[in-house]
Amino acid sequence: MGGRTIQVSGFALTDSPEFVKDFLERISGPGTILALNLRPPKNISAASKAFAIVQFETQESASLVENAAQRKELRRGSFFLKVRPAERDIIPRPRVPMFCLEDADLHFGCLVKENETIGFYLSYNYKNYKLEISYDSRWEMQLHRPPAHRSRTKFLLIQVQTVPKIYESSSDLMSEDPSFSSLNYFRDDTDDQWNRTIDFTPSASIGNRLFCVWSCRNCAISQTLVSNFFYYKEYNLDFECQNGRSYSCGTGIVPIVKSPNNIDVPFEILFQINHLVQLGTLSGPTLDNNFFCLVSPKFVPADHIKRALFNMSDLKSACLNPTDWLSAEYSKICKLLYTLQISPHISPDDGLVYVHRVQVTPAKVYFYGPEINFSNRVVRHFSADIDNFLPVSFVDEDFEKLHSADLSSHSSSRTVARRTSLYYRVLQLQDNSTRMFASHQGLTVSDIRKWMGDFRNIRNVAKCAARLGQSFSSSTETLKVYKYEISADFAMEVAMKCKLKCFAPSVFQIRYGGYKGIVAVDPRSNWKLSLRKSMLKFQSENITLDVLACSKYQPCFLNRQLITLLSTLGVGDSVFELKQEEAVRQLNSMVTEPQAAIKAIKLIPMGEVTNVVKELLLCDYKPDHEPYLSMLLQTFRASKLLELKAKSRIFIPQGRAMMGCLDETRMLKYSQVFIQASYCADDHRKFIVTGKVAVARNPCLHPGDVRVLHAVDVPDLHHMFDCVFFPQQGPRPHSNECSGSDLDGEIYFVSWDQSLIPIRMVAPMDYTPAPTDTLDHDVKIEEVEEYFTNYIVNESLGIIANAHVVFADKEYLRAESAPCIQLAKLFSVAVDFPKTGLPAQISHELHVREYPDFMEKLDKATYVSNCVIRKLYREIKKHTPHIKYFTRNVARRSYDSDLIIDGYEDYITEATEFKQEYDFKLGNLMDHYGIKSEAEIISGCILKMARNLTKSSDADAIRMAVRSLRKEAMLWFSEVGMDENGIGQDDLDAKASAWYHVTYHPDYWGCYNKGYHRDRPHLISFPWCVYDRLVCIKQRRNLKRKMVLK
C-alpha cells in the first residue's frame, strides 16, 4: 500500500475523531486518512491533551502533516501539535475498494440456456451485507450489453465455483461500546466491523445458485471491468433476469435434488448428480423427468450411467441440455469392446472400501465420492449398510477450516447431526468431522453402539466420545484371537495379513475389542497375544485383532518446530544451513545421476513406485532421458523442495522416525534408550546405535520436549528393530517428557547426528491433564453432539501454534521466552481438549498482529525475520523445480524400440482400449483430487490438491486408489484374452510391448483425449503397471548387445 501511520499529540480532550480528521486533512488533502484512534492520556488533569494515532493512505500525506509540525504550522489553539512515528498501523493491511457499482441490483440465479438466467432478488431487510468472493473461485465473468433501443441496463454476470462468504454489518457495535464511535474514525469498513452470517436470502438463494448478476445502469461498468479484470467475455445480445422457483428439495441444506417419485434412481447415481449440480456442471432447473429417466437403471445400464456422469464432470462449462448430451454419450459408450464389461469405478484392493462424504459450509452442501478409503472395524462388520455411513465435515466456503473466531456460540451444527451422529475420532475432530449413519428398520445407531461395546462406565462426555471413535480407526483386519507382548510366530501371521511378506515388524499399534495401544514381539512368549490392563478402555466382545500401524524403516526429517527448539538449546544456525545444503545437493544430483538416484530412493522411498524407479535405473535408463522415470524423479525433487520452503523439512541421514515402545525387560535405566535401525528401506541389515541421541515428538513447542538420552546395547532386545525403547525406571516416563505422549503408536524423532545434539537441556513441562468433570449419569448421545459443536467453536490449536512461531521468532530467548512457555502450556491444554472437554483460553497479549515473512501470510501484516528459519527460507527460494512434460517431440526422441517385440501388433486393439480405460480412471482420480500432473498422483509426491481436500487426510486414500488401479490393470493384462490353455510367456511379452507402443509411440500422442472436453496431459504410466515384463525385455536386449560386443 505504501501508507504510513503517525502519532499526533496536543488535541483538546473535547475534540472528536471527525474534527481531528477534518483538521489534518486540511493539510494532507480530503480522503487521505484511512483510520484514526483518538486517545486521552493515562492521567488526566486540567492541562492534559489528547493524542491521535493516524493512518494515512500514502507516505506523502503523512509527510505533509509531519513537515507542517516541524515548521510550527500545525497548531490547535495556542498549542503546537507534535508528531512522531507510530509503533504500528491501526489497520495492518488496509483494503481499498477497487471500484464501486452505483445504482445496481444484485441477483442470484442458475443458467438454463445460453445468455439467460433465472434470478432471485436479494432481500436486505434494512441490513447491510458483504459478500466476499475469492478471486480463485471465479469460473467465468461476462458483461452483457443489450442493444440500446431495448435496454439501457448492463448486466455483469459472474459464475463462481464456491459460495461467497457472507458478512453482516456489526450494527450493534456502537451500542455495545458507546465510546467506540467517539474515539475512532475509519474511512472504509474494516474486517472487524463485519460478522460472518448465514444465507439471509429467500429460499437460500446464495447457496442454491452459482451465478451472481449485477444489473447496472451505470455506463462506466465496462471501463470498470477493463481496469480491474483482464479476462471476461462481452456480449451484445438480449439479456433478462426472471423470477424463478427453487429446484432444491429443501431450504435447510442446499442445494440437494431428488428424482421424481415415479422414477427410481439409485442412491449412488443420485449422489453423483447432486455433486454435479453443486459444482455447477448441471443446472438444477434443467433436470426434468426426461433427464431422470436417462439416469435410471430401469432404462439404461447402471455402469453406462456412471461412466457418462464421470465424463460429464470433465466438462469445462455448464451442461445446459443434459438429456441430449447423455444420449450422445451413451452412443459412444456402446461402441466399446473390451471395457464394456468393466465397471467405471476402480476395483478396490482388499481392506479398502468405497465411501461417500459430505462437506457442509455455512451456506451450502457438497457431495463427494464414492472415494476409496481404508476400512475400519465397524464398516467391515456392517458392510451391507455401507451406503448408510456418511462422513460429514464442516468447512468454510473456501473449504478451509472453520476458525473459531468466525463461529457463533449458538452454532446450529448440532441440529444437523441430530439423531444421526454416530461418533467422532480425535483426529477427525480436529478437522471438524464426524461420521453419521442413517438408521433403518433392523439397524439403528443404537444397535451399532451396543455392538461396539459397553460405554456405560465412562461418565465424562469428551472421553466417552473419544472411546466411541476407537472402533472407527482405519485399520487392517488380521486374525481372531482370544485374550490368552505377541509371540514371534503370531507376529509373522499378522504381518502376512498386513501384506508384509518379507519381515515381521517388532511393534504393532492395535485395536482389540475395547483395548488400544501397542504390542511388541516377544520370542519367548507362548501366548499369541498378551495385553496390559491399562490398555483396556471399555468392555467389548469383539475378538478380531485390528492393526493400525507397525514399526518400519522411516526416514527422519527436521521441521520448523524442532529447528526452533534445537536453536533455542544452543545448536548453531550454520548446522541447519549445512544440513539443508546437503539435502538440496542430494535432490539435484538424483535427477541426473543414476547412482545418486538409487541411493536417494533407498533412503527416502517414493512409496508404491520405488521398485519401478529402481528397476528402470538398473536397466541403464538415464534419469534425465526416459520420460516416465524423469518425471517421477523431477516431481519427487519438486515436492521435497516445496517441503523445505514451507516447513524446513530437512532430511537427516543419521536419524530415523521411530515408533516408541516400553522396555519390558526392565534392563534400561532412566536416561537410556535402545535403538536398532535398518540401513534403508529395502536393506534388512541392521545396526545398533550407541551414544548420545536427541529424541522428540511432534508437535513440540516447549524446549523441554527435546530430550538428550543415551543409547545403549541391550542383548535381550536384539530381536527388536526400527523402534525406540524407553525405560520403565525413573521418576517420569521419557515418552511423557516428549510432548506428553503415552506410547500409543506415536512416532518419535530420533537422531544420533552429534551436530544436532543440544549443548544443554531444559526441564520438561508438566503434561498432567486438567481434571475432568464426571457426570452422575450415563453419557447421552445428545451430550456428545453438543460437545462436538462446542469443540468446533472453541478449538484453537492453529492459533496457538502460529502465535508460538511469531513469539519464538521475535523474542530474545526464543522458545524459552515467557510468551512461548505460556503458549506451550496452552497448546497442551488444546491438545487435551478432545479428551477433557476443557478449551484453552488465549489471553489478549498472546494474540499476534504481524507475522514473519517466511510464514507467507499474504493476507496479514508481515515483517522481515532474522532467525534461522528465515535464513533457510531465503536460501531455498533460490532453488526452483523443473518438471518436463511428455510432448509429441519427447515421444519421438524417447520411444524405445528395444521394448517392441514380434507379435505385439496382435494386441494393439486390446491395448488401445485398456489404455483408454486406464486413462479414464486415472484421469478421474486426478480431477477429483485436483492433481494436475500424472507424476504427482503416481508417486504420491503431491504438490497441490483441490481446496476441498487436505494432504494429511487424503494422501493415503490417493495412494490406495492408485495401488488398486494398478492391480486392476494387472488383472486386465493377465486375464483378458486368455483361453483354457492359458497364454505363453512370449505372448505376455508381446502384450506388454503393445501396451508400451500405444502409450509412447508419437502416433498415439494425445489421441486418448480426443472427443472429450478434457484439458489434461498425455498419460504414460499405463504400461509400467506391468513393469516387470518390460524390464525383462529390456534386460534381454541389453544382454544381447553386450554379447555382440564381446
Characterization of the model:
There is one protein chain. The protein is α+β, with helices and mostly antiparallel strands. Among the domains are: 4-85, RRM (RNA recognition motif) domain (Alpha-Beta Plaits, 2-Layer Sandwich), CATH 3.30.70; 104-175 and 189-243, no CATH class; 267-335; 352-472, no CATH class; 476-550; 655-756, Beta Barrel (Barwin-like endoglucanases); 888-1042, no CATH class. The protein contains 32 helices and 36 strands. The strands form eight sheets. It has a seven-stranded mixed sheet. It has a six-stranded mixed barrel with strand order 28-33-29-32-31-34. It has a five-stranded antiparallel sheet with strand order 6-1-3-2-13. Helix 9 packs across helix 10, helix 28 packs antiparallel against helix 30 (951-975) and helix 28 packs across helix 31. The relative contact order is 0.07. The model is unreliable at 115-123, 172-178 and 410-420 (pLDDT under 50).
The coarse silhouette is globular
Number of helices: 32
Strand order of the largest sheet: 16-10-11-15-7-8-17
For the CA atoms, what is the radius of gyration?
A: 32 Å
Give the strand content: 15-25%
Counting DSSP E segments of at least 2 residues, the number of strands comes to 36
**How can the largest sheet be summarized?**
7 strands, mixed
Percent helix among the residues? 25-40%
**Secondary-structure class:** alpha+beta
Low-pLDDT segments: 115-123, 172-178, 410-420
Average pLDDT number: 85
Q: How far apart, in Å, are the first and last alpha carbons?
A: 73 Å
